[in-house]
Amino acid sequence: MGIFDLFKPKKDTASEAKGRLQFIIAQQRDDRNPRHDIDIPPEFKVELMALIQKHFHIPDSAISVTKEKHGEYDVLDISIELPDAKPAQD
């Protein structure tokens, strides 16, 4: 740690955690063999919430799962908001 590091603004840990937990899964479509649309099963969100809640105390409303089409890609966007999340205690 240098002296100039003392004057840098500190990052918001909640937004850093949110950024780490946001991810996008993209699957390229095969134009020669078109697929059917991928539906997000309701069980997926339930299992994802159980996994996240194993490590963080967050409400069910803090998760957003959407599917969009971007050109030749299907994009699954999973966003989890962690406002002042505290690690879960076993």
From TrEMBL:
Pfam families associated with the record: MinE
InterPro entries named among the record's database cross-references: MinE, MinE_sf
Keywords: Cell cycle, Cell division
Superkingdom, taxonomy of origin: Bacteria
Gene3D superfamilies reported in the protein's UniProt record: Cell division topological specificity factor MinE
GO biological process: cell division; regulation of division septum assembly
Listed NCBIfam families: minE, PRK00296.1
The protein's role, per its UniProt record: Prevents the cell division inhibition by proteins MinC and MinD at internal division sites while permitting inhibition at polar sites. This ensures cell division at the proper site by restricting the formation of a division septum at the midpoint of the long axis of the cell.
Family classification: Belongs to the MinE family.
Protein name: Cell division topological specificity factor
